Amino acid sequence: MKEPFVSWEEIKKDLLKDPEFAKEVKLLEPEYEMIRQIIKTRIELNLSQKELANRVGTRQSNISRLEGGNYNPSIQFLKKVAHGLGKELHISFK
């Protein structure tokens, strides 16, 4: 028997009902937003991770870890990534 399809949005909605989970998601939002912006811009520029890495002066594996959320980059590295994407890095407090 085929199991019904459950979308990620439905699963996320259920998970966010847990206050502890929702709190952790909120704390991680700045990192995920930065990652989304990097990936979106790289794709818009039709660049592979390897091509971006060459522009930044690093290895493809570093870009992969950054995009996967498995790397805590320095501000200097993020500035290099922004420059490699033809962008400027802006950090703000709200």
Fold blueprint:
Layout: H1 8-15, H2 19-44, H3 49-56, H4 60-68, H5 75-84
Sheet-strand content, in percent, reads under 5%
Structural class: mainly alpha
Overall morphology: globular
Radius of gyration equals: 17 Å
SSE string, helix = H, strand = E? HHHHH
Largest sheet: none
**Which stretches of 5+ consecutive residues score pLDDT under 50?**
none
Q: How much helicity do the residues have?
A: 55-70%
Distance between the termini: 50 Å
On the 0 to 100 scale, the average pLDDT is 91
Number of helices: 5
By DSSP, the count of extended strands is 0
Descriptive report:
With 94 residues, the chain is mostly helical. Helices cover 65% and strands 0% of the residues. The protein is built from five helices and no strands. The protein has helices spanning 8-15, 19-44, 49-56, 60-68, 75-84. Helix 3 packs across helix 4 (60-68) and helix 3 (49-56) crosses helix 5. The longest helix has 26 residues, at 19-44. The relative contact order is 0.10. The model has no long low-confidence stretch (mean pLDDT 91).
